[in-house]
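User: Can you help me understand a structure? I only have the sequence.
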Amino acid sequence: MNAAKTLILTALLAGLALSCKTAEPVEVKPAESVPEAEPAPEQIKTGWSDENTYTVSATGSDSYSARRAAEHRVLKDIVNVRVRNNSRFTDITRIRDEFSKPLRDGIILREEKTGDGVKIYFQITDEGLKQKFQRK
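Assistant: Let's start by predicting it. Here is the structure, written out as tokens:
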């Protein structure tokens, strides 16, 4: 029986050897140059960058409405901080007057088109801004 197995295996190997073709050299073409993808835009961190700089993001149908939404977001954040700190200065209309200059001078760091309109990153700066947020 062992001889029969050897004979069958030999026949299979011979058949395989005869059915294989000699490999022809394959021409290797240089890779086509692929344009480099644009690097992802740098992430902008919202919140406090330092004691004098605060950034928020907001969306709107256009740049103008997004900026108004961002300004309102800043005012709401100030109110929230002051309420948590038990401040007596929590009237949003007075806070708007108090922060009129930083809001007016605020800058849009980035504007991105979205399916719904525009998303912006809005930053305000002022000397001692964080302390002004926390006013008691």
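Now, to help you interpret it: The chain has five helices and four strands. Helices lie at 2-19, 63-84, 92-98, 100-104, 129-133. Let me know which part you'd like to focus on.
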